[in-house]
Amino acid sequence: MTYQENYSAVVAQENYCLARQPICNTESETAAYELLYRNNPDQTDARVSCPHEATARVLTLAFMDIGIRPLAGKLPVYVNMTDELLLRKDILPKPADQIVLEVLEDIPPTPEILDALKDLKSQGYKIALDDFVLNPKTRAFLPYADIIKLDVMSCSRATLEKRVSILKKQSGIVLLAEKVETWDEFHECKAMGFDLFQGYFLSRPEILNNRPKSDSGMLIAQLLAEIYKADPDVAELEKLISRDPQLYYRIIKYVNSALYSLPNEISSLRHAITLLGLDQLKRIVSMLALAGSSKRAPSLMPVALIRAKMCQNLAESRGEQNAESFFTIGLLSMLDAFFQRPMDMILEDLPLQKSIKEALLTHSGKGGEVLDTVITYEKGMWEDLSSSEEQTILTNAYIQSVIWADEVSGITSLAKGK
């Protein structure tokens, strides 16, 4: 049974929401994921009805029903723990070295909990202290902590700087800033000494209005402009792609991959266009062009691919015509983050359909509605979605998109010459 078939069988029997949020390092590269979960989509807020059950279920889903590989590859995953599950440490899944156990702020440092943490560390699990505030009581956790998460929105900058200064003196502790909303906050936290960062800033642009276009950036803009014309000029496409040997190679490599199972090896771009058609080539060129567009592309690309595929999956589930256009909307919705320029300035150079531009700029129309829904799900704001039935459909679409993006990312990683 494939991952998709296995997951669909599970989701048909359960009613829950599951997503992941990237955690990045100081170079804005994805370093880990936190698994977000709610076991009762009918709730009106984000709290779970039974924390023990929720954590046990997310571990079962991630490591057994779906599998950790399509969810996170080889990267670590952070999972919220409860005191009960920490004490019942024998039921935690393996591999231990891929799991970071988050000790929530309401768990007291009792002798039993501290003994459990000591044992879990000896098994290879990493321990993170969530929403940590140092005081005489919580100090008992420090000898067992690998990572400390600080909520940057919960206190003033001066208080945050003081906390970082104190905690940095603890040997071997990694500091993680959570709820980082903007690139300004990212840079501030980086300067304070944080090692890891979590929040929505990654999917937002760091706007540099006077930033000149590089030669490679201009080539990508020209390429995207040509391919999104109503009647693209194949000869012009070949000419533009040929100016970037790495991009040319990636396209041929991608099309020759097992994703397409073509009967003959493709040796030229003209051959690829003939076999695939312009619509499919448009998708491939867009993905690979963005994958090599900036130093932040390796972190942004998985998010963009999941968003694009989820938009398409959701459009198909709703019976929308031309679901490919919804994929385009999802993929291009992060152009500003890729190119570090305002979206309206970027779209001036692209001859996109009016409905696609409106979806990207104002989130209007059916495309904008689907995009809004997908972004809401990404953020774990499930209480804002309309019904448990829709949330089940979205969860299914999300995990299938994660699996698909994992397959695709092996080819798009060639953007970095891997």
UniProtKB/TrEMBL annotation:
<dbReference type="InterPro" id="IPR013976">
    <property type="entry name" value="HDOD"/>
</dbReference>
<feature type="domain" description="HDOD">
    <location>
        <begin position="213"/>
        <end position="398"/>
    </location>
</feature>
<dbReference type="InterPro" id="IPR014408">
    <property type="entry name" value="dGMP_Pdiesterase_EAL/HD-GYP"/>
</dbReference>
<feature type="domain" description="EAL">
    <location>
        <begin position="1"/>
        <end position="219"/>
    </location>
</feature>
<dbReference type="Pfam" id="PF08668">
    <property type="entry name" value="HDOD"/>
</dbReference>
<dbReference type="InterPro" id="IPR052340">
    <property type="entry name" value="RNase_Y/CdgJ"/>
</dbReference>
<protein>
    <submittedName>
        <fullName>HDOD domain-containing protein</fullName>
    </submittedName>
</protein>
<dbReference type="Pfam" id="PF00563">
    <property type="entry name" value="EAL"/>
</dbReference>
<dbReference type="InterPro" id="IPR001633">
    <property type="entry name" value="EAL_dom"/>
</dbReference>
<dbReference type="InterPro" id="IPR035919">
    <property type="entry name" value="EAL_sf"/>
</dbReference>
